[in-house]
Amino acid sequence: MSGMNHKSLASIAGFCLLLAALLALNACASEIDIGQPVEVVIVPTQSPTAASESLGAGVTTSGTVLESLTENPDFALFVAGWNRIGRSQLFQSGGPFTVFAPTNVAFSRMGATSTELDPAALEGLLRHHVINQLLPPEQLATAGMTSTTAGAQLRLGKRGDSLAAGYATVVGEPIVTGNGIIYPIDAVLVPPEPGPEKSIWGLMQDDERLVAVVEAMGGTNSMYLLRFSQEVDAFLAPTSEAMAALEMPAELAGLLRSDETYDSLFAYHVMMPNGWPNDENLPAAEMVARGIVETPLRNPAQFGLLYTVEVIQAGDDILVNGARLIETDIPATNGMLHLIDTVLLPPPLAGDG
């Protein structure tokens, strides 16, 4: 304590007062639907000078959630999405909110811009990043399953030493504002798809046999590919039993889900054969007929040539690199889903170069 100056002590006190005020508001506030107009709630704030201090528990600001998001260039794509659906001003009043804000890098990995998504789908996706209550770090760490304003469940807690929201990791200090708290995250959170017609990823989320691979793939580039891309022709999904039998390659230990090496394990299960129409699903019979099927993974040692898998008919079974297809030809809106009984290791992770 002796090493702190009066300015540091004042800043910490100011931070605590703001957080206490927000917690008090959180305790008495009614549920707010950010899809509807909200009344202005006046929240006590500290002075601009004290609010600008960066503290170990986070960063405080005298502004609103909207002002903090807008002023931070790392959240430009997140704000652009809210502007597109005409809801951004809702963060100027009301609250308190807990907002998980994907960085621009996180949005770029999604592979689909906010202008490419249907407005209703975009609104559902954005709502899945907002909770109608204030969750400071110590509460977020133990929150467990929580409802978002999209009406879906989101698991909150810790992953290792970091705070986590679903498969996303908090990658910066929380920003405490006059009407909420913002957590920067490294992935866009994708809510469950409504309706009977679903993407490959949507089908996988609904299939109890694929719980383990869905958990492992969350937040990877391959997950976004299976959810949003029309370039996927098929995906070979390992069952939970197959995932349990996998001896995870040492190269993947400790890697973030955004890491390309981590994602390569799943990208090797994406089937994108040369010459196959993007608007047609790839059935198992066609894979057998081709014998060799390309994946999106490239071999840097072979001038970027695509890694492939071998598909053969063995009696009544169809084998892909020795893994057996246990269910085939499940149609999705953007490709075909096939289930396999063994995880396929891409050559670099299998020690084959």
Walk me through the structure.
This protein has 353 residues and is an alpha+beta fold. The chain folds into 2 domains: 6-185, FAS1 domain, CATH 2.30.180; 200-350, FAS1 domain. Helices cover 31% and strands 24% of the residues. The chain is built from 14 helices and 17 strands. It has helices at residues 6-28, 48-51, 65-71, 76-84, 104-110, 119-127, 137-140, 200-206, 211-217, 221-228, 240-245, 260-267, 284-290, 347-350, and strands at 54-55, 58-60, 97-102, 130-131, 144-147, 153-159, 162-165, 168-169, 175-177, 180-185, 234-238, 270-271, 292-299, 305-314, 317-320, 323-332, 335-340. 43% of the residues are buried. The model is unreliable at 1-56 (pLDDT under 50).
**How would you classify the helix and strand content by structural class?**
alpha+beta
Low-confidence stretches: 1-56
What does the overall shape look like?
A: elongated
Radius of gyration: 23 Å
Characteristic terms for this protein:
2 domains, 14 helices, FAS1 domain, 17 strands, alpha+beta, disordered N terminus
Brief synopsis:
It contains 14 helices and 17 strands. With 353 residues, it is an alpha+beta fold.
